[in-house]
Amino acid sequence: MGRQLQLATTEKDEVELLRFIRSLTPIRVFRSFARSTAELWIDDWENRKIPSPKFHYAAGFYIWPQTFPWSPEYAQTGGPDCRPADAGQFYIANVNEAPVFHFSRSFLDEHSYGRIYWARDFSAPNGLDYDEEAFARLTDSVWRWIRKVSHRPSDATKHSRYFLPDAWSRYGQFAAYHDAEKKELEELVARNQKYMIEVLGGKVVKNKG
Questions:
Q1: Least confident of 34-43, 49-58, 86-95, 142-151
Q2: How far is the C-alpha of 204 from the C-alpha of 37, rounded, in Å?
Q3: Helical axes 11-24 vs 132-149, angle rounded to 10°
Q4: Prediction pTM value
Q5: Is 192 helix (H, G, I), strand (E, B) or coil?
Q6: Does residue 97 carry a pLDDT above 70?
Q7: What distance in Å separates the CA atoms of residue 117 and residue 104, rounded to the nearest whole number?
């Protein structure tokens, strides 16, 4: 079973998170796809934004703590079902079994949040080739730091997002930001209910409590 924390972050927060992890272990950062194997690796992440796909679900990067040995295996996109525009891109084929954290970006203007995730053996049916317990201890340290430096809304639940410092100062501390998010959610629920009734023929069940 993997482990994750939902995050609200800016580019500045991304750098500070990477710096903290680097204080625990040497790291390398890589992206999902690139036009060459060399371009997959982002070693100058302190000086420029880490490139990633523009699609929300794919926007992010991977963090490899190098105290955990690993040999990346490269592959290329292609084949009859691959769009021509996507063909020929390089990626790391064995990332599911790798000792890495996956970081997905936030789009705070759209109230869209990211996460940091360790898959553990969720996508590794043949098991892991690295010290799982040691990586769990590293994960504990990263999670503790995030909880220590972050802020959460007053109505936060157990799995609510953690606003890292810059995201909190620019977005999270303002009630209007959360009010707008709540309104968007209410409008989404209303649209879904309308679709259920008008298209699917359902009905809304009133809460008797």
A1: 49-58
A2: 52
A3: 140
A4: 0.84
A5: helix
A6: yes
A7: 8
User: Which one, of 119, 131, 102, lies nearest residue 30 by Cα?
Assistant: 102
In our burial notation (b when 16+ CB lie closer than 10 A, e otherwise), range 30-58 reads bbbbbeeeeebbbeebeeeebebeeeeee
Instruction: Give the max Cα distance, the chain.
Output: 60
Query: Could you read off the pLDDT of 142-169 as tens digits, one per residue?
Result: 999 999 999 998 777 767 899 999 999 9
Kindly give, in sequence order, each residue whose CB lies less than 8 Å from that of residue 26, ignoring residues fewer than 6 positions away: 65, 66, 67
pLDDT of amino acid 167: 96
CA distance 45 to 9: 16
Structure tokens at 5: 């924390």
Produce one character per residue of 97-133: b if its CB has 16 or more CB atoms within 10 Å, e if not: bbbbbbbbbbebeebebbbbbbbeeeeeeeeeeeebe
DSSP 8-state class, residue 113? -
Q: Please name which of 67, 21, 69, 25 lies closest in space to residue 46, comparing C-alpha atoms.
A: 21
Digit-coded pLDDT (tens) for 160-198: 899 999 999 999 888 888 788 777 767 666 667 666 666
Query: Long-range pairs for 39-42 at CB < 8 Å and ≥24 separation?
Result: 39/90, 40/74, 40/90, 40/91, 40/92
Q: Is 154 within 8 Å of 93 (Cβ atoms)?
A: no
Residue 93 corresponds to which tokens in the numbers above?
């084929």
Query: Which tokens is 38 given?
Result: 């060399």
Angle at CA 149, nearest 5°, toward 147 and 153? 70
